[in-house]
Amino acid sequence: MSHAALAPDTTPRRSRRKDARPGELLAAALSLFVEKGFAATTVEAVAARAGVSKGTLFLYFPSKVELFQAVVRENIVGRLSEWAQTIERHEGPQAPLLRELMHQWWQRIGMTEASGITKLVMSEAGQFPDIARFYQTEVIEPGQALIRLILRRGVASGEFRDLNPEHTTHGLFAPMLFLVMWKHSLGLCAPAQTQLDPSAFIDSQLQLLLHGLMPPSPHTP
Amino acid sequence: MSHAALAPDTTPRRSRRKDARPGELLAAALSLFVEKGFAATTVEAVAARAGVSKGTLFLYFPSKVELFQAVVRENIVGRLSEWAQTIERHEGPQAPLLRELMHQWWQRIGMTEASGITKLVMSEAGQFPDIARFYQTEVIEPGQALIRLILRRGVASGEFRDLNPEHTTHGLFAPMLFLVMWKHSLGLCAPAQTQLDPSAFIDSQLQLLLHGLMPPSPHTP
Amino acid sequence: MSHAALAPDTTPRRSRRKDARPGELLAAALSLFVEKGFAATTVEAVAARAGVSKGTLFLYFPSKVELFQAVVRENIVGRLSEWAQTIERHEGPQAPLLRELMHQWWQRIGMTEASGITKLVMSEAGQFPDIARFYQTEVIEPGQALIRLILRRGVASGEFRDLNPEHTTHGLFAPMLFLVMWKHSLGLCAPAQTQLDPSAFIDSQLQLLLHGLMPPSPHTP
Amino acid sequence: MSHAALAPDTTPRRSRRKDARPGELLAAALSLFVEKGFAATTVEAVAARAGVSKGTLFLYFPSKVELFQAVVRENIVGRLSEWAQTIERHEGPQAPLLRELMHQWWQRIGMTEASGITKLVMSEAGQFPDIARFYQTEVIEPGQALIRLILRRGVASGEFRDLNPEHTTHGLFAPMLFLVMWKHSLGLCAPAQTQLDPSAFIDSQLQLLLHGLMPPSPHTP
DNA sequence: GATGAATGAGTGTTCATTCAT
DNA sequence: AATGAATGAACACTCATTCAT
């Protein structure tokens, strides 16, 4: 309608929008799936939040299910590599590293919108086994591998006892999972006096776990 | 499978079925709710699995939500009152009681279909506030009250230290929640070597927690 | 179950109830149909109010429609014969008779539950043409005949002018119909200041009509 | 029936239909509501009569009740504002205005399908309080306000006596209500000789009312 | 005769999906 | 590529009617 071609803006509107579309749709879908779950999210609402029509959504994603799967895939990759580097570079005792990582997890994932992805995946995994497999492979297993690496190093240096590594790993995951689910479900309607201070909770759980990991104090007979 | 085919059909058609109906419907509802979640389960499917028509279901349960609540009462709330009695009657130190209760929980809820209900509630609480409040009121709060009672008794007798009761309660719940979510979502597709022995996991978590709860033993040099 | 046979009550319970059943059902149906209309009345509610089971109702009335028709028929007959006698016996001017009859109508029909029948018939007539015909034949036409008789007598004696009798008859019915419909529908939610004093309204309408019926005053040129 | 069969099908399939849809749906809804009443009319039947699917109806009207309200606005409320203008602009005596308006009412509402709406509301107001309140607010009260305005002006100019305005207003409505109920219920099966000429009936009722409203003429001996 | 458990065809309403434009 | 009008298969829930007991 206007003579926009004369303007210096050389990036053509159409094609830039075209490239951006899937991303805008995925972002809209992410926030709605997190907010309302899979069933209660309508494709119309996703399209509206992305500023396109319902038909356009189906141009990029052939069905609601495939949109959901694309959302999960899009938002899972590449979260762990940073921590992998931190761990690899770390020198000194492992306990402060564990403590640091768990608090970082809370700051960067647990307390942010990103924890909604975890909640989403856990909630809908039963209906979408391939999503569960995907998350298991791409997130859970690499995450557990990092933890096991720390534990192995601690055992090797004599800082930790040589306990069952599965139990310890899961024992470290359990409070994080608990916090995520609490935040996104029942915590929403828990009475005020049951409210939870997540950082303090992490601290207390870590203290228990680290104490359990420590070797029997040397001056015990 | 049995030789029953030769026997005349002795199942009474109407009057005697009436007593059995609610149970059949509750069983069908439990398995479908666990399998598909609340929103994705249709009352028609429940009725069909119970071998009756849709209308018949509404003869016994006035709505889908109340059917669900009946399922929860049947499978979970009932157990809580049993445990309340066990706790009330208990004499002696609290640590073995906690251990016993957590293993009973695993045997009677955690490892059964009923644990799917907890997963369902955590997953869909956001969309069905009625259900979330119901579960919070009828299950979570009474359950936490039982735990707090044990903790208080332990503190009173000097068996436990006087730690933050919220953290301890949540710390006891976290592994159970972890097991439930694990079993019903990601665990479904975890590789064999990551499989978890739930009883042993409960044991190890309890050991950590109980150790953390014990007062500094006076006779340690 | 009891030895009631020994008691002196010789009227057998069974048969007496049996004879009373249809009447109890009709009474229950009448009040519910008046209260809620045809569609919104359930046969279950009728049976419950009559103190019998749903199945029993269908023993006496083969369908909801036929129950409805029986209710209307049962409650229409024999209301007018009294007034017919009053009119026949009346001597003297007709105007006070009309006035007396309309106020009696309000006292005996309009303000009582009976006006619900009229409302019911008018409301459902479109769906039940034979009920409409029945009411027309059994109530409306005899009623109009009575009015026409009065008018004819008034004209014969010179008390009334010789106006179109259809218009006058309908003009006398219109305020009664208006009161009935007002009472049973919109009047229910009219604001307080629009409330209507039925007796005063009848008076004012009668005054207009009677004035219109009077012959031109003799001393007018 | 027409020669159109030879012409190519020029009815545009989608985009141009959109403008016509609401009107087609409203027309279908009007005739079905009048024919069967509110409760007995199904949205599916309305859609079918308009030649669209059930879902399409909900594209234009968010609920059955709002469809009904749109029908009322289209067919009745619109007329009221026309009359409001007529009344406002009117100069000279009020009596001919009243006469003109009542005849217009008969031509535009009373004798058309639209009068069935009034009958419907009176019949089903008890079961659908939303509809009753809506009609009361949007039709009855504005209509009465118009009548009261005319009466007030007539009293102010000395054309009318200062009678009870409620009774006079209701007295003017009563014959219209009578005609509507007559047309849509019992009149459907009244014998031929009882048939009513509505225009003449309106005339005669108006004459009575206007005569009653006139002040005692000062120059009568 | 009387019961009440059981049915199944409908209700209004929603929403993923299609397709002519 | 993008639209948005149109669809129709669900869904939870109701209720007149049936029929074995």
Describe this structure in words.
The structure is a homotetramer of 221-residue chains. With 221 residues, the first copy, chain A, is an all-alpha fold. Chain A folds into 2 domains: 4-75, Arc Repressor Mutant, subunit A (Orthogonal Bundle); 78-213, Orthogonal Bundle (Tetracycline Repressor, domain 2). Chain A contains 10 helices and no strands. The first copy, chain A, has helices at residues 13-36, 43-50, 54-60, 64-76, 81-89, 94-110, 115-124, 129-156, 165-184, 198-213. Residues 1-16 of chain A have low confidence and may be disordered. Chains in contact: A-B, C-D. Chains A and B meet through helix 7, helix 8, helix 9 and helix 10 of A and helix 6, helix 7, helix 8 and helix 9 of B. Chain B binds a DNA duplex (21 and 21 nucleotides) through residues 12-15, 17-18, 21, 42-44, 52-56, 58-59, 62-64.
